[in-house]
Design brief:
mainly beta, 9% helix, single chain, 5-stranded mixed β-sheet, disordered N terminus
Length: 489
């Protein structure tokens, strides 16, 4: 009997927390302050519901009505705006290339207020990838806590682990990517006592030992050639340092780095003297969509750690012949960041060949920790570049990647609190205009983003779910069975 009394009391409390409805609410001449801030954003038709709450967290109840400019509506009445996934998708699909108007009412101390309506625009451009992949990691600098590579279905809130370091204890899992969002070709790097680079093709796994007598170390920062026959990597000798200033924490700098290309069919590393220079560090490679150009960054080496703030990278390119695996005989600088007293990192060409996204910061290439880092875009048709003011913030905006049709990109940002990096999405239209970015939706966003202790980084789109046998992969890593590679100059 006592159990039923407890259940009844709980039900009354739950109903009492959000039971009344807004009857003649007081009109407020301001937009609602909501978390996440979805006011005025542009979304793809396929995105998960934009659940939100009042930003100050003091409301007792919310009443939200969403009306489509073409047809349909939704109504939620709860502690926060929690939309049914199926109903949400029906409404958004019916209003593609239109807009959704949100009417938000809030109850405090028994009184209801109604804010000015806000709109969300539904893009005419599809986001035609299934989801995102990313690393999620707790903040730390000296030990590897639990971390892994995960994937998220963008149409709902389902997240799946691809590979966690619980399968390979003590290892650092990083540097993953698919070939132009196609996970049938997938790579990731494991750093630690059993370190290796995974190359998976159509479910077949090879663990590579990429250290050779002719190269600096392991292969990291991968980028697939569109043909799937090659994968570009950098190889780096890095060090980590710590700042004594309150607004700066950690710095990673290169004693040396080179760029090289791995040929899958022959297990060869293709080297080029122009990508292994003595006085410069080459880094962050990326192939053009036609596969005939290799973009990379280069910086004059400094004396470390004293000269770390003088380490500044330019964006360069060299030709590449996919038929022969030969490099060109000259390097061209296509963006001179050094003249601006800036450093350029993470060049990512759009898959339609029109743009290159990159990050600018004051120095170095570990921009995820630089508050001044911001995203820029270069139009390859005109050669003109500009900061993406529509998407940048006052805190670190950094690593990014394109979706398959080149109308959406994902990037990391610390704009919420300066401590944790989270994922934002934005669109770019045919005229190069970028929409206001929106935070990756979560079912209960306040709980998820304000209580989680993990940062997101190295995001990428994936056209389908990544399939990796994590248990077998863990055993293979610990076995130290590796495929050897050899160097071809």
């Amino acid at each position: 009997m006592t159990k039923y009394i407890y259940i009844l009391i709980l039900a009354v409390l739950l109903l009492g927390s959000c039971s009344s409805v807004p009857d003649n609410p007081q009109k407020v001449n301001s937009l609602p302050k909501i978390f996440p801030d979805y006011v005025g954003v542009t979304i793809p038709e396929s995105i998960a519901p934009l659940n939100f709450a009042m930003a100050d967290g003091t409301s007792q109840c919310m009443d939200v009505v969403v009306k489509g400019s073409k047809s349909g509506s939704l109504h939620v009445h709860s502690d926060y705006a929690d939309f049914n996934v199926d109903d949400w998708h029906k409404l958004v699909a019916a209003n593609k290339n239109g807009k959704l108007t949100f009417t938000v009412c809030e109850e405090k101390n028994g009184e209801w207020k109604q804010f000015k309506d806000f709109t969300v625009f539904v893009s005419p451009y599809e986001l035609d990838d299934w989801g995102l992949t990313y690393r999620r990691i707790a903040p730390g600098y000296e030990i590897y806590s639990k971390m892994g590579i995960y994937q998220r279905d963008l149409s709902n809130f389902d997240e799946f682990a691809i590979f966690e370091n619980t399968q390979a204890p003590g290892m650092c899992i990083n540097c993953h990517t698919s070939n132009r969002t196609d996970p049938s070709q997938f790579t990731l790097h494991v750093r630690g006592d059993h370190g290796a680079t995974l190359i998976q093709q159509n479910g077949h796994r090879e663990w590579l030992n990429t250290k050779t007598d002719s190269t600096l170390g392991s292969c990291v920062y991968p980028y697939w050639h569109p043909s799937g026959r090659y994968c570009a990597f950098s190889t780096n000798t890095t060090r980590q340092g710590f700042h004594a200033l309150p607004n700066e924490r950690v710095e990673v700098f290169d004693f040396d780095s080179d760029v090289q290309v791995y040929k899958l069919s022959t297990h060869e590393l293709l080297l080029c003297p122009l990508l292994q220079t003595k006085d410069y560090s080459e880094n962050c490679p990326a192939f053009s969509p036609d596969g005939k150009t290799l973009y990379f960054t280069t910086a004059k080496t400094q004396k470390y750690p004293q000269g770390y703030k003088k380490e500044r990278y330019n964006l360069c390119k060299i030709s590449f012949d996919p038929a022969t695996g030969k490099f060109g005989n000259k390097v061209d600088t296509i963006f001179n960041a050094v003249k601006m007293r800036k450093s350029l990192t993470w060049p990512r060409p759009s898959y339609d060949g029109r743009y290159i996204l990159f990050t600018l910061s004051d120095y170095g290439y570990f921009s995820i920790w630089h508050n001044e880092s911001e995203q820029w875009i270069m139009d390859l048709r005109t050669g003109k570049s500009r900061p993406i003011t529509e998407a940048n913030s006052k805190r670190a905006d950094s690593f990014h990647n394109w979706c398959r049709n080149s109308h959406w990109f994902v990037f990391t940002s610390r704009r919420l609190d300066g401590l944790y990096s989270n994922l934002y999405l934005a669109s770019i239209d045919k005229n190069g205009r970028v929409s206001k970015p929106f935070l990756l939706p979560q079912r209960d966003p306040v709980t998820y983003y304000k209580e989680t202790i993990y940062s997101f980084n190295v995001p990428d789109f994936t056209s389908t779910k990544v399939k990796l046998n994590s248990r077998a992969s863990g055993r293979e890593i610990l076995s130290d069975k590796r495929t050897s590679i050899h160097v071809k100059m």
